Amino acid sequence: MHTIYNVYTVIGMTCQHCAQTITGELSGMDGVTDVAVNLATGEVTVGSTDELSDHLVESAIAHAGYQLVV
Q1: pLDDT (tens digit, 9 = 90+) per residue, 52-69?
Q2: In the chain, what percentage of residues exceed pLDDT 70?
Q3: What is the spatial distance between Cα 47 and Cα 51, in angstroms, rounded to a whole number?
Q4: Which residues contact 41 (CB under 8 A, 6 or more apart)?
Q5: The pTM is what?
Q6: What residues does 68 pair with on adjacent strands?
Q7: CA dihedral 13, 19, 24, 25 (to 10 degrees)
């Protein structure tokens, strides 16, 4: 199976708890296979089996209390 990777920039992540919160929220999305958070750069890499809707990713990140840079 082919995995699609998308990289997003998120504002407001400062600690490991932030990374765990974002990872938990995005991991619950349909098709997501992998989430990697880089606190130093503010980047979140999401692996999925299908293309993800940017709107759904933005909503999940907002639900976790952070802001997606669009």
Answers
A1: 999 999 999 999 999 999
A2: 99
A3: 9
A4: 9
A5: 0.93
A6: 10
A7: 20
